[in-house]
Prior knowledge:
Blueprint: H1 4-14, H2 19-39, H3 41-45, H4 48-52, E1 57-66, E2 72-83, E3 89-95, H5 101-117, E4 124-129, H6 138-152, E5 161-164, H7 171-185, H8 205-223, E6 232-235, H9 240-251, E7 255-261, E8 264-268, H10 274-281, H11 290-293, E9 297-301, E10 312-314, H12 324-332, E11 337-339, H13 348-356, E12 360-362, H14 364-367, H15 370-384, H16 390-412, H17 421-439
Parallel strand pairs: 3-4, 3-5, 6-7, 6-10, 10-11, 11-12
Antiparallel strand pairs: 1-2, 2-4, 7-8, 8-9
Helix pairs in contact: 1-2, 2-5, 2-17, 5-17, 6-7, 8-9, 8-15, 8-16, 12-13, 15-16, 16-17
NADPH dihydro-nicotinamide-adenine-dinucleotide phosphate (NDP) binds at residues 165-168, 209, 237-242, 261-263, 285, 316-318, 321, 341-343, 368, 371.
Amino acid sequence: MLNLKDFLGYVADRNPNEPEFLQAVTEVVEDLIPHINKFHPDYAQQKILERIVEPERVITFRVTWLDDNNTVQVNRGYRVQMNSAIGPYKGGLRFSPTVNISILKFLAFEQVFKNSLTGLPIGGGKGGSDFDPKGKSDFEIMRFCQSFMTELYRHIGAETDVPAGDIGVGSREIGYLFGQYKRIQNNFTGVLTGKGIQWGGSYIRPEATGYGLLYFVSSIFDCNNDNLAGKVITISGAGNVAYYAAEKAIILGAKVITLSNSSGTLYDIEGFTLEKLAHLATLGRDIDRFVDKYKSAVFLKQQTPWHLPCDIALPCATQNELNENDAQQLIDNGCICVAEGANMPSTNEAIKLFLKAKIAYAPGKAANAGGVAVSGLEMSQNAIGQQWSIDKVDTRLKAIMHNIHKSCIRYGKEECGYINYLKGANIGGFIKVAEAMKAQGVV
Ligand code: NDP
Ligand code: 2IT
């Protein structure tokens, strides 16, 4: 029999100074251990949990590059190859000064379960660098990406490990990374996803995480014979995920009242429109300048959106951006659904409050899986040398999100009828990986 406290002690001892990784493991094994003890003593005997928390491989490397003043700069690059039981390692690259091994291990760990939930044959990985893209020139970004790939190329491949974007890595960076990979390997192959539409990319990949999030939220409301029309939504972040989440929410008739970034929250009491979003996109990180044009909006400096009354909250910025106090305020204000576009945006204490209040809480590994799902579809298109239409990809994305929702119900529906999406996603994502690991022997 596995014991939760002993297991967490074991993980903490083996991974000192990795609070985010420990947080992610805790949130998953709290659901898995009772399930394994009850239904799968074979997994305990095979030490599946001890194996699944141990990355198959962790690569760290030096990244040196010259800035625009010809000064030598030194950064650190990483790739965490977490689990390849069901397919090649797959997961994004994050460029941010906050990147460290704890954060990349938590992201890679979450990715294993998320990728399994998509139903596609993709394992889990994550990587990145402590490089700060903010304030860098286009040429500096290019030189950094080239230097980063000059080491990373030997560890990845279309059937080995397929990175993509994450915070600080968008289509521009994927372009520079791909260009350098192709130059070194002399091989035009689907080694990265999120590529440009003219050179192997998939339609809907830029939109996929945000759109998929709203498809998942729609499934939650469908279950209760409700829909998103007129629902008030608060969103954090103003990057890739937040932007397309807002766009789809508006298209589905909801009223989106906030977007945010690390400088504060933009609050538009009348709600954003597609036209307002298009204007916001021209402002870059200076989202506070939005209020110059639209008088219905105010900028709440250094504030998060969680104190504002809403029906649905969509954290789409970063990990641990929504704490216990925020969760209590959302519940007190009548919020009925929290769905995560970001990875691990809610602290474990906040999650406990959502579950206790029995509001619909959709964890990132289920709700934001649309991005990696369309990455998986991009890999398929590359493998067969085709490019599918917008409609075809969007239809498949909807079906994948719907199926993830079904998996969550399968393993997360409680006797009272409440759906514990966290438990459903944790167990639903785990079973397939555990079975594959068992079948492949002690490796
Ligand atoms: P982007 O770099 O496009 O945007 C990130 C946004 O979050 C920016 O608005 C940024 O503001 C804000 N942000 C970052 N850190 C903080 C912070 N500490 N406090 C407040 N705001 C912050 O990244 P993505 O939109 O791609 O990623 C957002 C989240 O979604 C991440 O958790 C990522 O792991 C997750 N995700 C991304 C997927 C993808 O396909 N891109 C797929 C699934 C999940 P600022 O510019 O001021 O830093
Ligand atoms: O967190 C995520 O799922 C991503 N950053 C997307 C990963 C991918 O391979 O598309």
